[in-house]
Amino acid sequence: MNNGLTDQQVANWRRDGFLYPFDMLSADEIRDCQAGLARFEAWLGSPVNASKDLKWRTMPHITLPWYTRLVHDARILDKIEQLIGADIMVFTSTFFIKEAHTPTIAAWHQDSTYYGIGQSANVATAWIALTEASHEAGCMDVLPFESDGPRQMQHVANVVQDSVNRAGQVITEAFDESRVATMALRPGQFSLHHGLCPHRSGPNTTDKRRIGIGMNFIAPSEKPLGKYKTATMLVRGEDRYGNFEKLRPPATELDDDAVAAHERAVTRYRETYYEQEPLHLQVTG
User: Fold this and answer.
1) Closest CA to 55 of 269, 272, 278
2) Distance CA 127, CA 79 (A)
């Protein structure tokens, strides 16, 4: 099976910063993922997004083997390789869940703003729908790059109420919203977007839970700009640079070593995020 992108799709990515939709998971695979999420929430004793500690919605690829298999899946990585290169690491991953008839949103933002790795082209996010991600269910809206290409925009964090993004960030500078595209996905499909592609999502107004999972990929050649060495998992190729702490896939679901590694990785990611927050208040592009 050919999992790659066409030349035209690669050109569209360079121009716009997003691609969709791609078929991926079968009905059986979707059920397996949903069952894995159900086990995880039973372990937590609550829905992921209602957990007392929101760290559990972050970096599940470190603790949940079914999620780890997804970040290693060739149906995603063959496309990512054409966009950022043959050596690929997962920088972070997240559950994006919106309960039925809830006001949860994401304001306009760019994923890599607070990563602390600069304005690189070697950052891409895959977003997989495990349930219907329609406009009514609060799917992603995206904006193509401006005519001069991707750039870091000015943000502020911790100001968006009911944000599906833990930090509640939002772009604060003026920009043209007239070219918005709505990336609706059916269950089992995924989309791709660049780390500097502006995007948002609305509330879930349907009767069903909207479940999405995101995974953020970077090239090992990236380098942390701050004082913290964040943790990454190599999923393809090799790391010839050693700029990040290395993570191993979990041996079993939520085993002690994986939970400890998750705690270290989330702590380091949070430290990097806090370090970056004040810096972007002064970004002018």
Assistant:
1) 269
2) 13
CATH, domain range 7-282: 2.60.120.620
Q: What is the mean pLDDT of residues 81-106?
A: 96
* Residue keyed to tokens 């702590």: 267
Per DSSP bridges, beta strands 140-142 and 123-129 are unpaired
pTM over 0.90: yes
Digit-coded pLDDT (tens) for 208-225 = 999 999 999 999 999 888
pLDDT of 199 reads: 94
